Amino acid sequence: MRTCDAAAVEKLFLLGITPYPPHNKIPKTALGAENSIKWEYIKEYQNFEFLPKQPTLGIEIVKNAKNLFDFNFPKPCTIIFGNEISGISPQMLQICDQIIKIPMYGSKESLNVATSAGIIIYNIINQWHHDQNN
What we know:
Elements: H1 2-6, E1 12-15, H2 26-30, E2 39-42, E3 56-59, E4 66-67, E5 78-81, H3 90-95, E6 98-101, H4 113-132
Parallel strand pairs: 1-2, 3-5, 3-6, 4-6
């Protein structure tokens, strides 16, 4: 939530088993950002009608994923991050227009969601800022 606030993300959707306010751990990590960003919790969903009508990109390590550093992010876009253990569900992967991966250079195969979100969101900001100035 703090990263979304810092980057002026339009809206954060929290799905399924994701903790959401007033969960007791959120104030410690969000530090008030839960009050400064738009967010919505959706416990159960059959379709994805709640998502904005714009390109939808999944962040996941799958065979045909594009490398983050070789991808031009459309403006605007919706970014989907998955569960820290199981990743993005097969149903959500199917609605993604493109899958992007963060390259991993060490021995581990993934990052936690908050770290991944920070990397992706600030890469998008950097790219859009660079595109705007050229």
